[in-house]
Each structure stands twice: as structure tokens, then as C-alpha cells.
Amino acid sequence: MMIQRRTRTLAVACLLAATATLAASGCSKSETSDTATTDSSQGAQAAKTPESSSGSGCSLQTYGAPKLDLKNAVVGFSQSEKEANPFRIAETQSIKDEAKKVGVKKLLTTNAQSQLSKQISDIQDMLSQGAQFLIVAPLNSDGLEPALKAAAAKKVPVLTIDRKVNSTACKDYVAFLGSDFVEQGKRAADAMIKTTGGKGKVAILLGASGNNVTTDRTKGFVDQLKAEAPGLEIVAQQTGEFARDKGQQVMEQLIQSKPDITAVYAENDEMGLGAVTALKAAGKKPGKDVKIVSVDGTRNAVQALVNGEYNAVIESNPRFGPLAFATAQKFYGGEEIPENVIITDRAYDESNAKASLGGAF
């Protein structure tokens, strides 16, 4: 499912201009240490400029929610997965940091631990605790309807980040903030074509099923290879569930069943790093014998690029705090919010990895 952009009003253009300047990086943790310092300007999120200044978005009036001052509000944040993944660590920290900066009266945070039923109950619990605005990182694109209905019944606006939900914008939720995942897959394919010369046998380490990130990153990659590099043959597609240990396990199996694989596209960095471990254990040289391209932009993956064990990384920026709260402030200020607020993402390769390491998370 490709992210569709709706036409927007001039007020929306102002929103995106404002959020682009307000965005700043959140704190992050790395599983390995290095000497690079964090560069907040490199790590900042920025929203893309809207394509049109006509049409309508979602306003406070059309959504039917009461006016709210965030400094006197209870805000809830629902995280989908355990914070053993650098993306989730950085995302949660960014929300916490910006809530403090904005002066939110109370921030409630929950973690669904990759369980859909828990995410539903987490959101319902936050509503019971008086949450007046919700920021949700959905586990899946489907299944959150009970939680969204509970929020709607209390006229509590919901802003979704990093994964889309298959529900109705400006009814079940206000807007989606995140990347164009099809474009990420396409850019990963372009990087793969460049590093392989357009020839070889590629294995895809798929993300978790049931969400648009996996579907879109796969579509963008597969379609681009078909169009631009028929000499790159996709010989395997197996899920690594966005986890490093699963990515390693799948790669170990593929080394045995498909020993002629020359390239790996991992739909997040954690799976790609798992593949690096598996390849090393098998006596292969990742980045040389087997080319590796992945999506996220974690410090560890960019460091692997610097070390020559990786070939390219397409960023998926997790620092949603500034953009999320800036969007909330505009929404409560009466401005219209587009259904999809798409952010810009960078790309890392051997030419810029060392200089850009400080902006990774």
C-alpha cells in the first residue's frame, strides 16, 4: 500500500514549514561505543514540503475534539515494541524529551512488548488515567480498532507515528507522521544496484508481518529491481521479524540452503547486523563477499559501513518528539493537519558514513 498524499491547504504548508524548523534530535543509545559525538542538527527530522496548497486536512473542529493547552494536559504515548532496538530507544526518548521541553503537565508512557492485545489495553488504560491526547506507534496496521474507538468515544485525538493504521483519518485518528516506506525500499534497491553493479543473487530479510512498513519496503525494493536491474535475482524472502537474533538465524539457514547468495537486503538494520554475524561465522566477508543494504540508520549499522562490513543504509528517522508535539500544537491552534506528514530521510554509504556517524541513533 503506497502512501497517498492528499492535497492540502496553505495553512498546512505553514505547519510543515514550522515543524521542519522545530524538529530536533532526541537522545539515543548505542549497543557499541565509538568516539563520534552526536550531532543534533544531522539527526533532526524534517517534513517534506506539501505538493499542493489546495484541499482540506483535519482540524480540531472537524475532528470534534475539545480545545486543549498541552501545558495543562495529560498526554499518553503507546510504544509498540520492547526497547531493545535502537530505533525504539531513540523514538521513546525523543517523545519524553520533547514533552518535557514543551512543558506537558503529565506524560504517560506504555510499552506493548510486541503484543497487539497489550497495546490495545495500554491505550485503554491511559484513557482511564485521563489521557487527553495520544501519540501511538502502532504494532500492526490492523487490529487497533477497539483502542481507537475508545479514544473516539472520549473525544481524545490520536496521532500515529512510524507505522500507519488501516483506519479513517480525521475520524479514527488525526494523522500519520512518518517515512515514505515504498520510497525507502526503492532507494535501498538503487543502493543495491550501485554496490553490486546490477548483477547477483539477493536475499530479502523481511520485517514483521501485519504492518505497512514491511509491505511497502518490500514493494519498493522488488519493483525497482524489476525495473532497473533484471540481472539482480531475488532468490529468497524470509522474515527476520525486525530482530537481530532472528535475522542472524535466517541468514545462517540461507547460507546453507542458498550458498550462492551475493547480496542481502534487510528491512531494518538489526536484521542486517544479524546477517553480518552469521556471515562472519561462516567464514564469509560481509560487505565484500556478500553485499548488505538495510534501512534505519542506527549507529551500529553506520559504524559497520565505516568498518567496510556494510554497503549502504537508508535512514528511517525515529526522532518523532519535536514533530509530534509541533503537530499537536498546530492542531489545537486550529490549523488543518494533512492525513500523511511525510518526513525526509537521508542515506549512508562509504562516501559519507564516517562524517555522518554523529547523526546516527
Q: What would a concise description of this structure say?
A:
It is built from 13 helices and twelve strands.
Q: Could you please describe the fold and organization of this structure?
A:
The chain has helices at residues 10-22, 40-43, 60-63, 86-102, 116-128, 145-153, 181-196, 212-228, 244-257, 269-281, 299-306, 321-332, 353-356, and strands at residues 74-79, 106-111, 133-136, 158-161, 175-178, 200-206, 232-239, 263-266, 291-296, 312-315, 340-342, 347-349. The two termini are 28 Å apart. Strand 3 (133-136), helix 6 and strand 4 (158-161) form a beta-alpha-beta unit. The strands form two sheets. Strands 2-1-3-4-5-11 form a six-stranded parallel beta sheet, sandwiched between helices. The protein contains 13 helices and twelve strands. Helix 4 (86-102) crosses helix 12 (321-332) and helix 9 crosses helix 10. With 361 residues, it is of the alpha/beta class. 40% of the residues lie in helices and 16% in strands.
